Amino acid sequence: MEPIESILAAGSKIADEVEVYFVKGESLSASLRKREISEAAISRSTGMAIRTIRDGKIGVSSTNDPERWQECLSAAIASGELATPQEWGGLPGPVDLDPTPLACDPEITMDPALLERFCEELLEGASRYPVEVTSGSAHVSRQFSTVANSSGVWYGSPKTSVGVSLDCISGQSTGYEFDSSYRLDIDPIGVGEEAARLAHTSGGGDDIRSGRYDVVLSQIALSQFLGAVFVPALSGRNVHAGRSRLAESMGEVVIDSSLSLYDDPFDGRGLFSTRWDAEGSPARRLDFIKKGVLCAFAYDLKTAYRYGKSGTGSAVRSGSGGGPAIGVHNLELDGKESGIMDEPALYVHDVVGAHTANPLSGDFSVELSNAYLVEGGEIMRPVRKAMMSGNIFTMLQETGGVGSKKRVTGRMILPKIRLLRQNIIGV
Predict the structure, then answer these.
(1) What does the alpha-carbon distance between residue 254 and residue 250 come to, in Å, rounded to a whole number?
(2) Is the pLDDT of residue 379 over 90?
(3) Which domains does the chain carry?
């Protein structure tokens, strides 16, 4: 508390407003190389970012040494002098928010025995198939973050994280699986078994002829497509900069009318659930798309003030360095649940190259990883090699329903989805 109070007091004398984002945390990790723990480490970190506003000029600086806060404050002021003045409506003031943490499990401790058990269970699961384990990992972490400003905001919240992953290989086929949570409810045995199953069952696949196929995307594959194009397209900054295909589509149907896309910062499953965003604005559910209709874009304060809009509580940070940016807390997709595997389709567990999609047009071409032909409601035969090309915006305009089970993948909570008549490039 002492450095934060000192920064706010000193900053208020030389700037119109000042904000401090302070993070302190610790983590414990272990790495598997084949079937042995090759490395284990515990780390502790402290960091802060200071943002100042003076005459509409915004300056930011960060440091990992809180004792050097005076230098950090001076650097923030100096960086602001180089910034272009903009319209500024002020940092948020305090609001009576529920302080109960949303993404924290107090039972999580930095216990090496816990990670050892996780690694053993990963290997136990993988042993159910004749595969070679190449690598894996397990981690636990906890941190406490505080956002405070000269307008009276002072919010603090703990956060925990637990996760495991495993890579396996069988011949020329590979399999990767992971699980993550803020609670001790992950399933390392299931992760190990699934990674091994993917590697084992992907070998000796069939060639597939080029053509149009219904495709079922796993939650992982869907998250890659959405993260590459849709999330950036919903950013108010990209909208007003002319870098979003959705910029002129407010109030129009932009995806299948059975689908809704929204950010729910209060979802109890989410790894990034929160009651306030990264600059102290109250978080709220933001409905981007309702029943196919585009209803909202995301804004942080800087972008909202610049373009005469209202902030949406959508500021996020990737760490303690730098200032806030526009993002999502828990992006979710709802749709009409159906038997998405009942009819013949191509099931895709993962894709390679989604990040190369054109963020403005939405055009993409990706390699399919761990793909299988679906017949009679069951995954039957692996596909040797294939690619999928098309447009991310148009592929969501006509779908065949979603699965009933959602999965947390980073900042998204998604179901599987059936896409109709997608362009598959095979032989």
Answers:
(1) 9
(2) no
(3) 2-199 (3.30.2290.10), 205-427 (no CATH)
